[in-house]
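FAQ: What does a multi-protein file look like?

Like this. Sequence, then tokens, then the next protein.
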Amino acid sequence: MSTPGQARTSQARADSFRTACRRSGRPSSCARSAPRKAPEGPPDFPTSYLLPTCEFRCSPAPPPARLQLLPSRASLLPPPSLPSSSPAIQGPPPTPVHAMPRPLCAAFACLAALAPGLSRAASLSLSPSPSRSGAQVSDNLEPSFAGFGIEPSNLFSFTGWNEPNNFSIQLLQNLADYSGAPPHIRVGGNTQDYMIYDADYQDFGWKKNPHSTAQGVIAADSMIIGPNYLAALDRFPKDTFITYGLNLAYEGDDYLDKMINHSRAVVENLNNTRLYSFEIGNEPDLFLQNGLRAAPWDGKTYTTQFMERADTVYQKVLSPKGMAPTFFEPPATASTIGTTFEIAMLNSDGILDKMNGEYYVGWWNQHDYFYFIGVTPTPITLDDLMDMDQTNTQFAYWEKQVKIALNTGVPYVLREMCSIGPIGMHKVSDTFGASLWTLNFFLYMATLNVSSVQMHMTDNSNASAWQPINLYGKDPFVRPQYYAHAAVAQIIGNGNGTTQIGALDVSGAGGDYKGRIRAYSAYANSALQAVILINSKQVNASEPNKDSFTFNLQMGASNANKNIYISYLTADGADSLSGTTWNGMAFSDEDGQASVVDESLYQYSLDGNGDFSINVRDSEAIVANLDWQLGSNKVIKVNGTTTSGSRRKNAASPSVTGAETAIWAAVLVSFLTLATSLGAF
């Protein structure tokens, strides 16, 4: 999508290609208007443009749900005389109000009406299956599932130029320690189709090509990179999977030679990180609008050009290295609706067929944004973003594409995604509310069996998980969105290669909570391990009285009387730009290191039936994990080593012994199989 280092022919696209409206799922509602220039960026980068888009509207809410009086989270905290950093009280924990026998709990609720500071809560009952066999869940999640995309022109902002950007590297390493592998990184975007590799260019940086001759509103040979572009990329944490975007737009007489030279350099120079796949071109469905191709240009023509280049790269670069031919990810498109680039169409055009005896497609790759900024009558608000039903509505057509893709037997990846493109929106995409949106979106994608999701980042985007450099007079810092990545990483690492996610039915949440409640089950070793509960009803930091929503969970008789540990994703309010914590941890704006800022241990017990209830404050999410605190277990890394628990230990935290040795072996076999297919051994 539109990013620093690119410009679009905005008015032409507004007139002829309503992608932003198609992203909303309502093509007919697009309001066209003149493009609006983005804020000034760093002087080295061309200016981005914001495009027309469409309004998001919800259907009228049903009548309010029946409310009942229950205690808020505040009633469960240690008394004021105890410092917030006090360790958990020794011995059996006090029985929380919401785990009392039902008659007593009801009586307490009546008394709570007389107590100041207690919130009123709507409620919902949920019954996750105690066993994976009785649940509809995802495949096992890869440790690298929740990843990032980096615009190629911005790579050095994240990696560092002559010196490494240790702040960015540490933030990625944190996630690797939590999940078992670094987040999957896609280096791709519009600017990949402007880049030419020159082995003689030795700077840490890219330069403008003084001899550019190629076509395009921004020429397809306008940027020069060299070996140190790849050296910088290789600074990311060890074994980081890299999906690398090659230039399809360039079509000079030497286009195949240039692609061979570039792809060979990538294969030979990424040694610390691990090359996972190639994209050939970014968003070819926009090539006409960006002047990168002349008519006729459609999915069939694209398929022909993709296959030629994939075959050439395989025969000349990958095959001599012993690497697999199914190394490519088409079509990397911006839109799915009303184009000739839909998956079924490309399949009919022969993109999954053999060429010279080889299949080349290893993954279906598409892009999306929840919202793409433009001049519209009603711009997006934080409340819109936090309405999770709108996310389902916006992604509905992509859901169909996922199903079609999986029916071909080829995995589906969402390699470019974000809340708001092209560069976010201050006080919307950089808020704690956006962190809740991010957490929900990753879990939602997991339930669809999307294999990997990359949240796109530029250095000047208000939707990036962190700002990697000093920009606009502001030092690097961590945004709330990063905390959602940390939460997902710990959820995945909790199962050590066996984590599966299922969606729980929340259709019973009505009234003010319609579209604001999401619940997911997490399974490990085929058994229920955790539930993730999200309350995205907007409440801002300035509001003194914050309501909550009560989840009544029946975890099954097999879990009767077990301990359950609560981890909070929280901030002062939905509009908070800082102060977010996850699982009692905060991440430093100085060096990216994690520190425990809340030592409290929220440990409770299920009753004799395996039931419990818990309040989740408006604009907050929790993970309720059985038997141990999330993050206290050792996490098995893909190379077979383990990381110590990223959070406080407790007596119930598991070790890597016994049955878990089998998990370790399975993870290692999977790693060796993939490494062999990539030609690493």
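And here is the next protein:
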Amino acid sequence: MARDPTGRLGCSKPSLRPNNNLLGDKAVSKSNVESGINSASGERRTLSHWFELRTMCAADAHDKPESEVRELLRLILDGEQGPDDFELQKLTGGRAHAVYKVENGKTTAVLRVLEGHGAVETALLEQGVTLFLRQHNYPVPAIYKYKVVKGGSTALFLNEFCHGGTLGDLAQQIATKKGTVKELVPITKSFGATLASLHMIPDSKDCLEKHKVAMRTEDILPARGTPPSKGGISELFMLLVELCKDSPKSLLHMDFHAGNVIIDGDHCKSVLDWESCAYGDPRLDFAMAWGFLEMTPPEMFLGQENKNVIIQAFVSGYFQVLGQTYSDMSAFKAWALWALGQDHGEECAKRLKPAVESLMRQAGLGTRV
């Protein structure tokens, strides 16, 4: 197995100790991570559990007044620099956190705010996984500082700022006819290669066990809720548990889509959002990443033919690095589209249902979804 996937992909190799005058040269260390593990819940997570945490975390974080954000910045800077010396720019407010760009002319960083139920255990997981991945030269942003405040209800990160846009930003430009689909082919191949390189990193089990991530197929499969006790989806779950029973396992991202990858030219510069990660059969992760592309309406690629080209670029990039191909993926793909439909609402589930049923037929299963 390749121990330097980043070099293989041509991505910039991250420094384990960021050189930064404001923040010092101390990235989050192994001792920082392990010192907080006991405060997290001992319950092993399922992906359904993570969905609930992501929904509840930072419910009110998106529209904080600037004064409150500056107070949080003051808390994590801990006297090294005054928060008023920084310019603040809100970047996003997802289901799990609010994100701000902070800069003072010398330094640019990212302030991430996680609040509410599950915030600290989410933060501890991300700390541990980030440290592990950077030790293996996988492209993830450095964590400069981490702090729990407000009596343990809020976790703060000061992260490396990754210059550049996401693959999703580039795809959006294509959709609005400000570029050509051919521009997406090399970077989409790198997108697939980056996922394959993750699946080739050795010795991830010990790191993930400490953080109680999902490690059984039965815990990885559920989406928003549990599957029906009868019918095709229940049969699909049982088939996947059997297919994954004795297969090789690896670290899984489980949310590997274009919006979570920062790009630099034709290469993937940094992979974001690790709170849904798990340990299991890499075919599950591959199928989910494929599903994100497959569920995208053809008009986003200016037609079905272009969409097929992009999906093939992802697939070829993945298998080129992996050095092998997977056999029949029908069951895995059916599960991925079903789970994404559950996660993205009733209309999406309805639109994806025919494809799910077709893939289930190919897998030799009943089609009642």
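Q: Is there any per-entry metadata?
A: Some entries carry free-text notes. For the entry above: Residues 59-160 form a domain with the Phosphorylase Kinase; domain 1 fold (CATH 3.30.200.20).
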